[in-house]
Amino acid sequence: MVKYSRQPAENTKSAKTKVADLRAHFKNTYETARAVKGLKLKRAIKYLEDVLEHRDCIPYRRFTGHVGRTTQAKLHGVTQGRFPEKSVRYIIQLLKNLQANAEAKGLDIEKTSITHFVVQRAVQGRRRTYRAHGRIGPYLSSNCHIEFIATEKAEGVKRAEKVTPRLTKKQAAKQRLAIGK
């Protein structure tokens, strides 16, 4: 059995998916996964397809060093954004897998939303690049592990009518004085 960083509260109402040692940049993948958290599954896939076609962008909130600005990021309340195509393609594949897992469990896809994501750094891939004067430098790739959990939202419960608390004579007198002022 594969180990997840967290177990859902209701296992029967949720679906999981995971990939390890993905050959995509950790920082881009983290921001992409963060952008879809809380969205419904179909809406998240549609949003990522819009990113691939440059109709929307992935807002960068945490890893903002040397990230350019784009006008579309204003829609998300920040100024910095990118279109990380490789990370987006991998996450679309994962979300489609998550959707299939939810359907296999008998969950309603329309009510299922992404409630949890984790992106962790994996072991760096080590290659070498040749430098001047016979030296060799590292040529590293920053891989990552990703996991998603989607949960089907239950129907809303009606709110009970508000019951006015009983007041003592002293409290009632204070209220009357406060109203008269």
Automatic annotation (TrEMBL):
| Alphabetized GO MF terms | structural constituent of ribosome
Protein name (Swiss-Prot/TrEMBL)? 60S ribosomal protein L17
What keywords are assigned to this protein?
Answer: Ribonucleoprotein, Ribosomal protein
Query: Is Transferase included in the keywords of this UniProt record?
Result: no
Renumbered to this chain, the signal peptide range is none
Biological process (GO) annotations held by this record are: cytoplasmic translation
Q: Which domain of life is it from?
A: Eukaryota
CDD domains hit by this protein:
Ribosomal_L22 (cd00336)
Report any Pfam family annotated for this entry: Ribosomal_L22
NCBIfam families reported in the protein's UniProt record? uL22_arch_euk
**What GO cellular component entries does it have?**
cytosolic large ribosomal subunit
Carries keyword Ribosomal protein? yes
What's this protein's family per the entry?
A: Belongs to the universal ribosomal protein uL22 family.
